[in-house]
Amino acid sequence: MRTSRLFLNRLNAAPDSHDAVVVIDVLRSFSVAAYAFAAGASVIYPVETISDALYLQAAMPDALTTGAVAGGDAAPGFDFGNSPTALQGAELAGRALIQSTAAGVLGLTRFRHARALFAGSLLFARATAQALLDLHPEEVCFVITGEWVDRDGDEDVACADYIEALLHGDNPDPAPYADRVRNSDFGRRFLAGTNPSLPASDLELCAQADLFDFALRAEHTDGRLQLQRYRAGG
Predict the structure, then answer these.
(1) pLDDT single digits (tens) 122-136
(2) Which of 5, 84, 141, 151 has the fewest CB atoms within 10 Å of its CB?
């Protein structure tokens, strides 16, 4: 199985079609998505903009919204920010969630035409590797979304490195990869305590390997991109 890497921050033209794509956003889009499913969410609709999210919510009044603007501040008018801490204790049983973020969700929409499209986070990295192995793709492309002019994106590179090792038959200790999430440029901002939108509790909730036994697969259903839980062999 071949693997490759792309960086969302460096893409200009529309990307070519791909076999299997894992769009990685450890801090925090797809970690939030995982905790939302753990809290009972039935489906997540990733949309590019805040206005898209609010428009969809008007058509689906029982749905809730989660997301942030570039930099991490909560999106105005949303029910939840892009924060797993905010979802602790939330009761989402049976509720749809609409998600809009400046990195992870944008990456999903850019690669919506891949044969198999997954969201990636350290929280369910092993389950993602198992799901990919189950599909037998010729190539897996990892899309790194966390790299920006002022961020090294190593939290997402670490996740890609871990999944790639699993795909190649290795069984590495996940602890060093979790440490890289904490020590990444963006990870250190959560520990600085200078931005209330970046609580240290979010970092600890995201920097855990293999907490969940499901992957997150994105597919088109009824004309909309949807994230659903996916288990290998299921």
Answers:
(1) 999 999 999 999 999
(2) 5
